[in-house]
Amino acid sequence: MSLTGLNGAERNAIESLFQSTEGRLGEFTFLDPTDNLLRWSEDLTAETWEKGPLVSLAAAFADPAGTERATRAVNTGAAAQRIEQSIEGPARFQYCFSVCARADVSTPVVLYSTDGTMSADTRATAGPSWRRLAHSSRLESASEATVFGLELGPGAAVELYGFQAECQPAASAYRRTTTRSGVYERSRFGDDVLTLTADGPGEYSCAVRIVAGM
After folding, report:
1. Structural domain for 47, as ranges
2. Measured between alpha carbons, how far is 40 from 162 in angstroms, rounded to an integer?
3. Number of domains in the chain
């Protein structure tokens, strides 16, 4: 990766991680900044997704991509129900969690992130037209795992497509995932030398090679 326009804090963070892992020796979890951090982004029946007991799912609905890969989720209960997935990513990082949603009638939904103790949420509305709903968060937490999810109120029925979590403040183009995501545990630097270049006052660049584990 060629990293440019780094500020002093970002430069120090990269250098600190490189020193703590002793170059190629130590392992760390790498979150690919260009990929979707969630697995099975279109299959809510996969085991990686945790669902409330009263959430009913039906597949093969028309989606905004012109195919039929959307899922209709219905809360059949009298209390709020959730659909969520956990990733091995520090809760203190900046994330954007997003999903395309539509509903036959205007329907409130809540997108949230949590580490199990602290949480943040964004309230949005799904309507007759497909719309990408997004939740941006950074939790002041030392937890090394983060949960992203969607909450439906009693009786809510919403069609969902393209769940995505990424390590940045805003949603970018959707990237479909199945068994793999942009979270790589057991990764390491590919070199024993880290060269950081000062390009101007408070501005730095470097090239970093990551050998990603499974």
Report:
1. 33-181
2. 9
3. 2
